[in-house]
Design goal:
Blueprint lengths: L12 E10 L6 H12 L5 E8 L4 E8 L2 H9 L1 H14 E11 L11
Antiparallel strand pairs: 1-3, 1-4, 2-3
Length: about 110
């Protein structure tokens, strides 16, 4: 199965970079994470998401949003807020969230032979 990053979009747009270290207790995490991935797709202005996980347990999720309003709608979604609260209580040892406005963006894809 081939994986590829979210495409480069015409700026400006916003990114939310969520970097985590999870606890050993992960009961319910997969189901909640899958639900959040489905729920965010309903946000007008949601552009996509990239995920990465290191062997040591550092997780990075980058969400892409067309504008600040889309990001605010996601941040304030009631079901998302409940998942955030549960994450702090159960699933995350630590996390950081960085939000940035993208001013430049480009990509590359190798041509098929």
């Amino acid at each position: 199965m081939s994986e590829s990053p979210v495409e480069a979009f015409d700026p400006p747009y916003y990114v939310a970079v969520f970097t985590t270290v999870r606890t050993e207790e992960q009961g319910g995490y997969r189901e909640t994470n899958a639900r959040m991935e489905e729920l965010v797709k309903d946000v007008p202005g949601y552009l996509g998401m990239d995920h990465a996980q290191t062997p040591g347990g550092l997780g990075i999720t980058v969400g892409y949003f067309r504008d600040a309003d889309a990001l605010t709608e996601w941040r304030t979604n009631a079901e998302h807020r409940a998942a955030q609260k549960r994450g702090r209580a159960e699933w995350y040892e630590s996390y950081t969230l960085h939000v940035a406005k993208v001013e430049r963006s480009h990509g590359f894809t190798r041509a098929a032979d």
